[in-house]
């Protein structure tokens, strides 16, 4: 059954690469261009998965359970992670699928991300991580605190996201020039035709739902997740302990493989070596991603996509602070750089 993790990972990596599903860009666009199209697509994933998760729970296929909310670690870790993904040029999953495209900078970010996640979870900083995550409150999710059915939250989320999607679909689209298709049929649809952001999000949401029963069947009681599997992969490579190789490890390996297949099929695979400055940013961003994700209890997948679908305090708090961290990094590395040349053109004394 572990092989199902590889298959889910291949599907996820393929869809994210072909759909250009960049969570870092979704968060960054809020601050840089004031555009919420990709954030809305991200929330489509959350909404679709939420319907599926609570349906699976109601059917007895899985059993959702809430843990205490480690509020301090979630806030600090979420903010660090959000800041880091701008430096690294992609979130955890984005780094995996861009590594599959041949981006050497993403290879470097991926290595330090996985390494520092392992350092935080089972290495020298495990004590610090545990201490930070031990600062908790008992309440774990919104619907339990309010004493209402989770389906009320599901309905509100689905309705709100549907309205946001409608808003974006009603906006006039700029026609983009494109080369004549060189493929036909399914090959054209899979490897050549641009994928719609919201259609891509629905497919990712369905993959996320499928991950739950498949993962549970192997004894791993969770859905999609990137940080802990990445940490376990490092542990396995260092110790050779085969018990560390679970469904999640197969998942992250599958993401690499799926994105490589998609990039090769679409002609987008190319080994690209970054300059020295990008190398430093990739290494530092990846390290901070590992630290932040370990503290927060998950990345943009485990927290902002999976935990939010369960309406946990951890998931939604992490999402908010990831966006805030991304905003600060965008201001320091992108927006200030744009403003500087403009300021230099203003005559003295004006």
UniProtKB/TrEMBL annotation:
InterPro entries, per the entry: Sulf_transp_TsuA/YedE
CC per GO annotation: plasma membrane
Main subcellular localisation: membrane
Membrane topology of this protein: Multi-pass membrane protein
Keyword Cytoplasm belongs to the record: no
One Pfam family of this chain: Sulf_transp
PANTHER family for the chain: INNER MEMBRANE PROTEIN YEDE, SULPHUR TRANSPORT DOMAIN-CONTAINING PROTEIN
The protein's name: YeeE/YedE family protein
Originating organism: Arthrobacter zhangbolii
Organism lineage: Bacteria, Bacillati, Actinomycetota, Actinomycetes, Micrococcales
């Amino acid at each position: 059954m572990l092989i199902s993790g590889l298959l889910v990972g291949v599907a996820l990596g393929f869809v994210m690469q072909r759909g250009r599903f960049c969570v870092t860009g979704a968060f960054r666009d809020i601050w840089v261009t004031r555009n919420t199209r990709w954030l809305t697509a991200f929330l489509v994933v959350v909404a679709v998965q939420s319907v599926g998760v609570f349906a699976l729970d109601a059917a007895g296929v899985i059993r959702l359970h809430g843990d205490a909310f480690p509020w301090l670690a979630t806030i600090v870790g979420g903010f660090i992670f959000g800041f880091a993904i701008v430096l690294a040029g992609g979130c955890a999953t984005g780094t995996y699928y861009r590594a599959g495209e041949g981006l050497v900078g993403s290879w470097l970010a991926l290595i330090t991300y996985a390494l520092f996640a392992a350092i935080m979870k089972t290495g020298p900083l495990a004590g610090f991580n545990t201490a930070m995550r031990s600062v908790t409150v008992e309440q774990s999710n919104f619907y339990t605190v309010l004493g209402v059915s989770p389906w009320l939250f599901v309905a509100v989320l689905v309705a709100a996201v549907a309205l946001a999607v409608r808003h974006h679909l009603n906006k006039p689209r700029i026609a983009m020039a494109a080369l004549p298709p060189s493929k036909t049929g399914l090959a054209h649809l899979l490897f050549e035709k641009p994928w719609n952001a919201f259609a891509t999000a629905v497919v990712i949401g369905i993959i996320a739902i499928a991950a739950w029963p498949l993962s549970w069947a192997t004894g791993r009681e969770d859905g999609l997740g990137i940080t802990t599997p990445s940490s376990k992969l490092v542990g396995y490579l260092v110790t050779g302990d085969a018990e560390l190789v679970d469904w999640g490890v197969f998942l992250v390996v599958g993401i690499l493989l799926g994105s490589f297949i998609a990039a090769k099929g679409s002609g987008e695979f190319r080994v690209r070596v970054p300059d020295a400055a990008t190398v430093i940013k990739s290494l530092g961003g990846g390290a901070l991603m590992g630290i932040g994700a370990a503290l927060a209890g998950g990345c943009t997948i485990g927290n902002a996509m999976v935990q939010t679908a369960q309406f946990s305090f951890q998931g939604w708090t992490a999402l908010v602070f990831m966006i805030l961290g991304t905003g600060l990094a965008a201001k320091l590395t992108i927006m200030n750089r744009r403003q500087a040349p403009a300021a230099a053109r203003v005559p003295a004394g004006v």
